[in-house]
Amino acid sequence: MFEFLSTTNLCAIQDLLESAVAKQQIFFKELLDGIEKKEEIREIIREEREEKWRAEERAQHLFFAEAMQFLSQKLRADDGSAAPSAAGVKVPMCASDNFVARAPCFKKRSKNWKRSEVLQLIKIRGEMEERFAKSIRRAALWGELAEVLRSRGVRRDGKQCREKWEKLMSEYKDVVEGKKQKGDSPYFPELWAALMERGL
Q1: Stronger pLDDT, 177 or 73, i.e. the higher one
Q2: 87 within 8 A of 144, measured Cβ to Cβ
Q3: Which residues are CB-neighbours of 176 under 8 A, at least 6 positions away?
Q4: I need a labelling partner for 23 at 20 to 30 A (CA). Which of 31, 42, 121, 134 fits?
Q5: pTM above 0.85, yes or no
């Protein structure tokens, strides 16, 4: 068949075939590249979904842990209120039996906490979290925490420490649940860091 074709025609046919093959190769390469890109996009979307799911799972775990801790503190509040309260009343620092005269000697702090005091409370309470989690009666632990604070210049009794911590955790819980913004809880970053550091 090809014996009737001239050399020029054969070259033209060869060029045409090579051009067709080259175009076909380019087509298949672009097709494969498109498939690979789609697979990459699918993989990225899958990883993003998994990361979002893991983040939601961590948030749910944190919320559950905080809710359980908050509930436990409320249920055990009666156990921790008597002893620290009594300690705060029965330790006068002077000999007078008169209540008015006794107050200046005890130098009881007001209910308002300074920021430096709250930061110390968060730090120490975070360090003692494991002991609080394992303890049923926490009055002694709150007393111990108050002693540590006292050694650092913060004069608060166990009851004050417990009440302040419960208030902080209540605000923190509202932020986690979305009831409040982070700005509504001035100590949210410190609480988050203290709790996350211990895997809570």
Answers
A1: 177
A2: no
A3: 59, 62, 63, 66
A4: 42
A5: no
